[in-house]
Amino acid sequence: MKRSKRFRKTADLVDRARYYSVEEGVGLVKKTATAGFDESIEISINLGVDPRHADQMVRGTVSFPHGTGKEVKVLVLTNEPRWDEAKEAGADFVGLDDFVEKIKTGWFEMDSVIATPDVMAVVGKLGKILGPRGLMPNPKIGTVTNDLTDAIKQIKAGRIDFRVDKYGILHVIFGRSSFEESQLKENLLAFFDKVLKLKPAATKGIYVKAVTLSSTMGPGIKIDRQQALALVK
């Protein structure tokens, strides 16, 4: 693969054979974020789980102390009497049947979907569409709720939903290149701590196998998983 001159220059800053501490990794990922925009900063965690088994699925929510730096668009699916309530709480899109039909035709301008319990019979029909995208409302992660105001405010403030992919890897954006190093570190550790607490009882062997940081246009930076574990234990 042909790499740009900018990428090759930033890649030279990273020792591929080295495992960096969290503090070093956070500082380095900011240095390698040299594109002409505020790049997203992502953490990838390779877990020793087999998501094909329900008892090894890792999914949950985390509220970042400093948010993600991204404007999150929230869709609320509920009956008409609660539309004004959802709009006043900050929802970007509110409705039911009209948005169900739009989603069926490929509309995905939202980043999160919240639904009230009374409409799940309708929303449930979107499972095969929203599920693979990680957007299906679920009571376990607080996106099927009657407390619309609290759910909307939490998501807008930086709470995200996450789930392991079919390869056993978590990919989560936890900040932007414009964040201070201390903010990125605190967000990273908040997520790491949450992942450790979600360790399935059925997991055998090493749970956290590898941790990597990267910016949108930058190279991967391997993190010393043992040092990261020590910071949150």
Explain what the structure shows.
- It is a single chain.
- This protein has 233 residues and is an alpha/beta fold.
- It has two domains: 136 residues, Ribosomal protein L1/L10, rRNA-binding domain (Ribulose 1,5 Bisphosphate Carboxylase/Oxygenase); 84 residues, 3-Layer(aba) Sandwich (Rossmann fold), CATH 3.40.50.790.
- It is built from nine helices and nine strands.
- The strands form three sheets. A four-stranded antiparallel sheet has the order 7-1-8-9. The protein has a three-stranded parallel sheet with strand order 4-3-5, with helices on both faces. Strands 2-6 form a two-stranded antiparallel sheet.
- Helix 8 crosses helix 9.
Task: Draw up the topology in text.
Blueprint: H1 5-11, H2 22-31, E1 40-47, E2 59-63, E3 74-77, H3 83-88, E4 93-95, H4 97-104, E5 112-115, H5 120-123, H6 127-130, H7 148-156, E6 159-163, E7 169-176, H8 181-197, E8 208-215, E9 221-223, H9 225-232
Parallel strand pairs: 3-4, 3-5
Antiparallel strand pairs: 1-7, 1-8, 2-6, 8-9
Helix pairs in contact: 8-9
> Which term fits the overall shape?
globular
Supply Rg: 19 Å
Task: Name the average pLDDT.
Answer: 93
Order of helices and strands: HHEEEHEHEHHHEEHEEH
Spatial sequence of strands, sheet with the most strands: 7-1-8-9
Strand percent estimate: 15-25%
